[in-house]
Amino acid sequence: MNENRENWSGRIGFVLAAAASAIGLGNLWRFPYLAAQYGGGTFIVIYLVLLVTVGFTMMMAEVTIGRATAQSQLTAYNKIKKGWGFVGLIGTIVPFLIIPYYTVIGGWVLKYFIAFAQMSFGGGELMGAGAAQSSDFFGSFISAPFAPFGYGVFFLLLCAAVIVMGVRKGIEKSNLVMMPLLFLLTIGIAVYVCTLPGALAGIKYYLVPNMDALAGADGTFSVARFGQTLMGAVGQMFFSLSIAMGIMITYGSYVPKTASIEKSVRHIEFFDTLIAFLAGLMIIPMVYVFAVKTGTPVNEAMKAGPGLMFITLPKVFASIGPAGNYLGMCFFALVIFAALTSCISIYEACVSAVCDFLKISRKSSTFFVFFMIAFMSVFPAMGYGAWGDIKVILGMQFLDLMDFSTSCLLMPINALLTCILIGWVVGEKYIADEVTHLGEPFKGRKLFAVMVKYVVPVFLALLLISETCRNLGLFGWKI
Ligand code: PHE
Fold first, then answer.
1. Which tens digit of pLDDT belongs to each residue from 405-434?
2. How many whole angstroms separate alpha carbon 241 and alpha carbon 271?
3. pTM of whole model > 0.90?
4. Which atom, in ligand 1's list, is nearest to the CA of 342?
5. Cα distance between residue 280 and residue 35, in whole Å
6. CB 3.0–4.6 Å: which of 24, 165, 188, 334 could bond 342 by disulfide?
7. Which atom of ligand 1 is the closest one to the Cα of 339?
8. What is the pLDDT of residue 61?
9. What span, in angstroms and rounded, lies between the C-alpha atoms of 117 and 328?
10. For 237-266, what is each residue's pLDDT tens digit?
11. Percentage of residues of the chain with pLDDT beyond 70
């Protein structure tokens, strides 16, 4: 092990940091929506099964690669097997492409938090008379000439301030403050929302298994629908566990040799899924009550992504009355913590790769990466305003293109190659040896061996095909 490499203070520090990375916008704005669309409890059961098999395997592989090589993704693969460095390169391009737009969205979240805080304490309708009830506020903010970029850079500065302090003093310490607050806010808001009049029907809509979601037009079980549900769940799980972004390899490279990797992975998965589940309990009943009140079909009100967070939810908060402002403020504070800790992890994956490759200090690398990201974030920041008409290729704007090329192409390809390397080239023993090197048991070894060799590659290949078809609208595929 590299003597000078920083490391976490212990297993808890690592679990908290990795969970902080995993818990992000994906948990808040995508999981609830997917669950609602794909049959509630049915989707949740499918997700859980995939989590303890496919998700477990990928996360074990990445964290162990990090610890075994004591390198971040860019240089780790070549250390495992000469000639495989290109996989690390793909795994380094991914965070560099994701972080510019994640930063811009982080800026939007900051803006909304400030707006709700001002409305809570200053009174009035800061979003503009009635604007909270429409999409005007969002539309005019994201299309403004400078503000989206400015807020994004400010958000990035907050992350840089943590990164520059280092693994223990920066990342670990900041998580000790942000993560408990995130948990408390999530539980507090979920409890409040579940006690709203009419919330019970929304809770049922979220949790009761609805087998119809797996049925085709003729009402019987449809293999195609089941396949779509499965792919929706797998894609969500990979994104939510921060897999194939270089993050888990980098964070794994700071894990002390004495810490149990298997236990850590199970705990990270547990926390990530718990927050995703609670996010559903806070968002779905709230949107459900609102939809019933305003006579909107629930399916239409229940959107995913920015539309849900920045347009629908502000309307929901406005419909609750003055308490809605406080609720909105707490909600966006929670989103800030979730987004900040995820952004810190992906920023760290970039910084660490640059440090390992160029052998420069953390400080220089943090600055270097900061300017790169700030420059690249101009594109997604302007994509809704002045440069809105620029469709880069395939009719996609910058933000969509960055999202598509990473989550649909590069990430599945990177994960697939990782499986081939571990399952077929160096063998699962490489992972098992590192996991058990101090006599620690590897309880899931058999499962891991079969998964990494046969099952996960098949899922990843299918994901690659289905995501490409879905995004390019081929064969009428929709998820
Ligand atoms: N797991 C994160 C999420 O749900 C994924 C992510 C991590 C995205 C870091 C960007 C940066 O949002």
1. 898 899 999 999 999 999 999 999 999 999
2. 10
3. yes
4. 9
5. 8
6. 24
7. 12
8. 98
9. 8
10. 999 999 999 999 999 999 999 999 999 999
11. 93
Tell me, what's the pLDDT at 479? 45
Q: Which residues of 274-302 are buried (b: 16+ CB within 10 A; e: fewer)?
A: bbbbbbbbbbbbbbbbbbeeeeeebeebb
Here the tokens at position 210 are: 């609805």
CA distance linking residue 326 with residue 309, whole number of Å: 16
254, 6 contact by CB (below 8 A): yes
Q: Which residues line ligand 1 (CB under 6 A)?
A: 21-22, 24-27, 98, 102, 239-240, 242, 342-343, 345-346
Mutation test residue for ligand 1: of 162, 179, 242, the one with most atoms within 8 Å of CB? 242
**Percent of the residues in the chain that have a pLDDT greater than 90, as a whole number:** 72
Token code pair at residue 287: 């949107």
Please tell me the distance between residue 398's alpha carbon and the centre of ligand 1 in angstroms: 19
Under DSSP, the state recorded for 454 is: I
Q: Which uninterrupted H or E stretch holds 153?
A: helix 147-164
Residue 262, H or E segment: helix 261-294
The amino acid present at 384, given as its one-letter code, is Y
How far apart CA 183 and CA 275 sit, in angstroms, is 8
Eight-state DSSP code of residue 28: I
pLDDT in tens, 48-99: 999 999 999 999 999 999 999 999 999 999 999 999 999 999 999 999 999 9
